[in-house]
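Hi team,

Filling in the usual template for the complex we talked about on Friday. All components are listed, including any nucleic acid strands or ligand strings, so the model treats them as one assembly.

SUBMITTER: L.P.
PURPOSE: interface mapping
COMPONENTS: two
RESIDUES: 224
SEQUENCES:
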Amino acid sequence: GAGVSQSPSNKVTEKGKDVELRCDPISGHTALYWYRQSLGQGLEFLIYFQGNSAPDKSGLPSDRFSAERTGGSVSTLTIQRTQQEDSAVYLCASSLGAGSNSPLHFGNGTRLTVT
Amino acid sequence: GQNIDQPTEMTATEGAIVQINCTYQTSGFNGLFWYQQHAGEAPTFLSYNVLDGLEEKGRFSSFLSRSKGYSYLLLKELQMKDSASYLCAVTDSNYQLIWGAGTKLIIKP
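RESULT (copied from the run log):
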């Protein structure tokens, strides 16, 4: 596609349930990022994938959070046993790759509400 | 630690000029980005600086001084649609992106 695609755009879930958020990056982009943004706040880095290298998971806030990137393309962010503090907009971005200093292209995000 | 500082909020008048500053302390430097984010939307790329000096793109310009760890984004002929948050981000020596918290710009008629 022309841009980064994320689904669903909105997700309301009950506390304790698991959720999966999907990101389809721009074709040919080897780098993929997940960020979290609470209302009125800056971007909180979660995880970064670069090609076939081991992902940088240093931003994941707890072991309830995990992410995969299959075939170097689509990525899924999974949050297990959701808590109310997980409510935020989850943004995915892709770029040509580290070292290229190409800008990040963001998807429109998934707004997660945990009730 | 790594740190990027931007003002939290600025107000300016339609038609005027505004300068949004960004100072950084990072482990190395491989470039600085400015992004615009309208409320409820994703950030979009505005500019990139890696060498000292001014980069101009229409009504928007971005300046970098690596020796001072300083950048600014200059917006001219302000329009109401420029009301948004402006995010400064620096790529460190490991090509990791460090983000500022963003500056909310309010444009008044």
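MY TAKE: The mean pLDDT of chain B is 95. The interface with chain A takes residues 30-31, 33, 35, 41-45, 48, 50, 87, 91, 95-97, 99-102 of chain B (CB under 8 Å).

Thanks, L.
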